[in-house]
Amino acid sequence: MKIVLATGNKGKLTEFQHLFESLPFDILPQSDFEVPEGIEDGLSFVENALIKARQASRFTGLPAIADDSGLEVDALNGAPGIYSARFSGENATDQQNNLRLLTLLQNVPREQRTARFHCLLVFLRHAEDPTPLICQGTWEGLIGVTPEGNNGFGYDPLFFIPELDCTSAQLGKDEKNRISHRAKAMALLREQLASSST
């Protein structure tokens, strides 16, 4: 079965293709079909993921998978949350977003810098699917004081994992893909899709 992935992010495409390689699904990026980006005007991760999946499914006629992910910082009342990618404005760079986060937390002590990454994945059988599969993964950590590491993207250089004594950006790709918020959500989705395809 062909499934369209509602993202233009090549890293996400590679992760999904790897995770589903033992299942009878062919994961294709929406860029193969020139699907326009959906307008993410939902008020939650699940709403935005559904917007993206419905858009991709509607344009391609295929089942669709979409995710919406972001960082939730307790000292900032859950910000940046659904605005993680545009925390310092539309078309913001990772560096600009990280700098804004550090600025807002500059007087916050380490023990109060708790945070978590969220990943919300949805699977639609078709664009009007009233019962999408919804899977969520979270990853707990702290926001560091300075960026560390060169792997990953987004807030990875600031996301410190106490039990591993390093940031997400200091992890190897295989380890990150085993323990991250996206890995957890994807594992749940894989289980549900595997059971529904048998």
Count of beta strands: 7
From the N-terminal CA to the C-terminal CA, the straight-line distance is 13 Å
Strand order of the largest sheet: 2-1-3-4-5-6-7
Q: Unreliable runs, pLDDT <50, ≥5 residues?
A: none
Structural class: alpha/beta
Rg is 17 Å
CATH class: Alpha Beta
Roughly what is the average pLDDT, rounded to an integer?
92
Largest sheet: 7 strands, mixed
Structure commentary:
- The structure is a single chain.
- The chain has 198 residues and is an alpha/beta fold.
- It has one domain (2-196): Maf protein.
- Helices cover 30% and strands 23% of the residues.
- The protein contains five helices and seven strands, in the order E-H-E-H-E-H-E-E-E-E-H-H.
- It has helices at 10-19, 45-60, 94-104, 173-179, 181-196; strands spanning 2-5, 26-29, 64-73, 114-124, 133-143, 159-161, 166-167.
- A seven-stranded mixed beta sheet has the order 2-1-3-4-5-6-7.
- Helix 4 crosses helix 5 (181-196).
Short structural summary:
The chain has 198 residues and is α/β, with parallel strands linked by helices. It has helices at residues 10-19, 45-60, 94-104, 173-179, 181-196; strands at residues 2-5, 26-29, 64-73, 114-124, 133-143, 159-161, 166-167. The chain has 5 helices and 7 strands, in the order E-H-E-H-E-H-E-E-E-E-H-H.
